[in-house]
Amino acid sequence: MAKIDISLDAELVVKVMVLAGVGSPQDAVEAVVRDYIARGHRTEARVRSQDEPRRANDSLPPLPEG
Q1: What is the rounded distance in angstroms from the CA atom of residue 32 to the CA atom of residue 1?
Q2: Per-residue pLDDT band at 17 (split at 50, 70, 90)
Q3: Cβ-contact 26, 7 below 8 angstroms
Q4: What is the model's pLDDT at position 7?
Q5: Euclidean distance between CA atoms 8 and 40, whole angstroms
Q6: What region, left, alpha or beta, does residue 61 occupy, with left being phi > 0 and alpha being psi -120 to 50 degrees?
Q7: Of 12, 14, 60, 66, which is least surrounded by CB within 10 A?
Q8: Confidence at residue 21, expressed as pLDDT on a 0 to 100 scale
Q9: Which band of pLDDT confidence, cut at 50, 70 and 90, is reported for residue 53?
Q10: C-alpha Rg value of the chain to the nearest Å
Q11: Which residues fall within 8 angstroms of residue 37, CB to CB, at 6 or more apart?
């Protein structure tokens, strides 16, 4: 996997390290990024599962009037 170097405010990184309970600045930031991505996937899955019943109902033909 390709790697990149970025510059971040030291105070911000220290806060992330403390909150994540990680001793390495790189590991702390990587943990936050991975968590952010995982939350996005969970949100997508939740929205998709909520939309599926609506889509199924939308594809049904209309009931005859009578």
Answers
A1: 18
A2: very high
A3: no
A4: 93
A5: 23
A6: beta
A7: 66
A8: 93
A9: low
A10: 22
A11: none
Distance from C-alpha of 8 to C-alpha of 20, rounded to nearest angstrom: 16
The yes-or-no verdict on residue 15 having pLDDT over 90 is: yes
Q: What is the DSSP string of the chain?
A: ---------HHHHHHHHHHHT-S-HHHHHHHHHHHHHHHHHHHHHHHHHHHHHHHHHHTSPPPPP-
Two structure tokens written together for 20? 């994540």
**At which residue do the structure tokens 């049904």 appear?**
60
Q: Cβ contacts of residue 29 below 8 Å, gap of 6+?
A: 8, 13, 16
Measured over the CA atoms of residue 14, residue 26, residue 35 and residue 10, the dihedral's sign is positive
What amino acid is encoded at 17 in this protein?
A: M
